[in-house]
Specification:
- Two copies of one chain form a homodimer.
- By secondary structure, chain A is of the alpha/beta class.
- Chain A has two domains: 15-118 and 270-337, FAD/NAD(P)-binding domain (3-Layer(bba) Sandwich), CATH 3.50.50; 124-268, FAD/NAD(P)-binding domain (3-Layer(bba) Sandwich).
- In chain A, a hairpin with a 2-residue loop joins β27 and β28 (369-372).
- Chain A has helices at residues 22-31, 53-57, 63-66, 70-74, 136-155, 159-165, 175-191, 221-234, 275-279, 323-339, 373-391, 395-407; strands at residues 15-18, 38-42, 46-48, 67-69, 80-84, 87-91, 96-99, 104-106, 109-112, 116-118, 131-132, 167-171, 205-209, 237-239, 244-248, 251-254, 258-260, 263-266, 270-272, 289-290, 296-297, 300-305, 310-311, 313-314, 317-318, 353-358, 361-366, 369-372.
- In chain A, the strands form nine sheets. In chain A, strands 5-2-1-9-22-21 form a six-stranded mixed beta sheet. Chain A has a five-stranded parallel beta sheet with strand order 11-18-12-13-14. Chain A has a three-stranded antiparallel beta sheet with strand order 6-7-8.
- The longest helix of chain A has 20 residues, at 136-155.
- Chains A and B meet through α3, β4, β5, α5 and α12 of A and α3, β4, β5, α5 and α12 of B.
- Chains A, B: Its EC number is 1.6.5.9.
- Chains A, B: Keywords: FAD, Flavoprotein, NAD, Oxidoreductase.
- Chains A, B: GO terms for molecular function: NADH dehydrogenase (quinone) (non-electrogenic) activity.
- Chains A, B: It is an enzyme of class 1 (oxidoreductase).
Amino acid sequence: MENKIATPHSGSPPVVVVGGGFGGLSCARALAGSGVQVTLIDRKNHHLFQPLLYQVATAALSPADIAIPIRSILSDAANVEVLMGEVVAVDHHERCVILEDGQRIPYGILVLAVGSAYNYFGHPEWQDVATSLKTIGDARRIRARLLRSFEEAERCNDIARRSRLMTSVVIGGGPTGVEMAGTIIELARHTLRRDFRHIDPSHARVVLVEAGRRLLGALPEKCSSYALQTLRKKGVEVHLGTTVKEIDETGIRTETTEIAAATVIWAAGIRANPAAQWLGVEPDRSGRIAVAPDLSVPGRPDIYVVGDAAQFDAGGHPLPALAQVAQQQGRWLGRHLRTGRPPSAFVFRNRGDTAVIGRDAAVYAFRSWSFTGRLAWFLWSLVHIVLLIDFEKRVLVSFQWLWRYITSSRGARLID
Amino acid sequence: MENKIATPHSGSPPVVVVGGGFGGLSCARALAGSGVQVTLIDRKNHHLFQPLLYQVATAALSPADIAIPIRSILSDAANVEVLMGEVVAVDHHERCVILEDGQRIPYGILVLAVGSAYNYFGHPEWQDVATSLKTIGDARRIRARLLRSFEEAERCNDIARRSRLMTSVVIGGGPTGVEMAGTIIELARHTLRRDFRHIDPSHARVVLVEAGRRLLGALPEKCSSYALQTLRKKGVEVHLGTTVKEIDETGIRTETTEIAAATVIWAAGIRANPAAQWLGVEPDRSGRIAVAPDLSVPGRPDIYVVGDAAQFDAGGHPLPALAQVAQQQGRWLGRHLRTGRPPSAFVFRNRGDTAVIGRDAAVYAFRSWSFTGRLAWFLWSLVHIVLLIDFEKRVLVSFQWLWRYITSSRGARLID
């Protein structure tokens, strides 16, 4: 079995990268301008800046502000081609990927960067009534539901129905759930404050439900308390140690209570997209593929996995499913594939864990330090601008984004 | 029968305005801050800046750039309320409008500003295969179709199919058709130029079909020739004096030729939305309601029509269906309803007729003067900035729009 990373040379099958998210795109970009032929395949035509997707869902940014056409990012790289298509299988004996229409794309090296999706913990039927937040389509559905509920409430004479229309429930107290709850309450209490004549949007009810004993379980205790205090001060009702038992079109039911709500948002757990099936390997509990220190798949020559779909052991525990992990893995792998040197071990450099709680409040944890409030918000935006600049070739556009975020484009409130 | 415009006073039924486009919105804004209660009803939650809709369809602007929430525009006007709903009937005996769920909204004065839709000249089945451009949804569908066709062509090995995927047909040589054809060719030949590896987007074919003998038939001859020359120089194939006989998923057929095309866009004729039925009056050939010099409907006390749905006689010929006509009518009517003075006659002040042909080419006709080229483009943007500022309360935002238009946000190229 070969020790060395084989570098495909001109004329041989390319490096095929499946997925245009943080992992796949940074891998392709690290290979740009090299002698290596690369083919990047994604189901969509755009790279989505997911950390800000909750902003689209709460009508503070619009889809175009956080989506970048993949071709546009890679157009200067003559050795990289982009195909829009869906991979449905991998034939690792014949060394090719198979697309939705049967087309076979041969690979010399395969990089799987397929990401993750939300996990409904054995209740797939909840997906229809509790939208998760993974794609632009999800964000627009949630946004439409929120705004339409206020519009209906404005016309509604039935008190119980009006109350239900003005209630939202967010399930899951990790960063996404905290961000959603914090921005929905801001949408209601600030943005829409003066827009209605029969209802008072500041009476909207936002409920955040978390099964664990604290919010932001992966961050230090200090950040959890700050998030809890801040959300409660903003008016969010936070239920900790609470598990959801039932969800339907009228709302949710927990062990102890029923909440009638027009909008239910699922942010409670993720699961890797099923690349393990393609390779015929056994995934872990979250559907992830265990990888070696060089990100390769044991027993599957010339196949690598990066990002949310990979289970990478870092000193006894797996790396979390974060944008910065995917980006660093993709870039590291791309650089190694470029040089063809013997493989070494990937090392993750944590730039800090962050979560936003509102327009002026965030938490930021780095090693033993925790920051909260405006300083944390500033650090959060630094981290995200760096992530963003990596894909936007021009710093100007990154600041345009920041400008729009700050000035809160009203056009983002479209119901379409 | 009363001569005077009745001004509803506090406690009496309000002025109900149906439609949040240029006509309805400018009427409501002219009444803002008066003692008159106003209720504005629209099916959507946003006002759409239609002159730039073709920019969204060709992926140069995104929906949020040209859509403004109606509530946001009117939030400061305490006497104006906004309802999101669809009017399905008018009971002019009981003096109320009826919404889609049966809710009845009483009016003291009714202003119908329902606008227009595209006219398929007796071929309603063409609507499925030839999208018209009236709403954000239309624009996104066209955009997705254009971009997806290039994506499929990139993966396609069949020459005939590839050629069809890279062909678009625009039907109708008025301003909308000319703008669409000009910007699609720019999308292909400039914006997407370097993004593909297997196809050359500059080989895309754009065909513009017009039944009349010249483009822009409502503008002077000089403008028509300039538009024709400019489009042909950009690479658009223009067929004049040509009527479309058949349209299906494979393309179009005229009297003389067949054109295989993946994208067919209908911009060939408009028809007023059917308010005439609501009132039980006979519409003209285009579905418009004939109005008196004060914009009222003869035989229907306290009912007015503004915009595309009104047929207003100006010196022997009806005013055209233009944004500036609707805006001026709405504003004039609002001011008169505010003061309650005896009615006079509406007079339209033409600020010039314009059409854009590309990023640097436009035509502008005012009285006996015609301008073409960059000067016309500059005048075009002045006219449109004035229209836009009228609804955006801050000049800053209008310039943000202009900035985005010039810098051509890549995010607008989302396929979602």
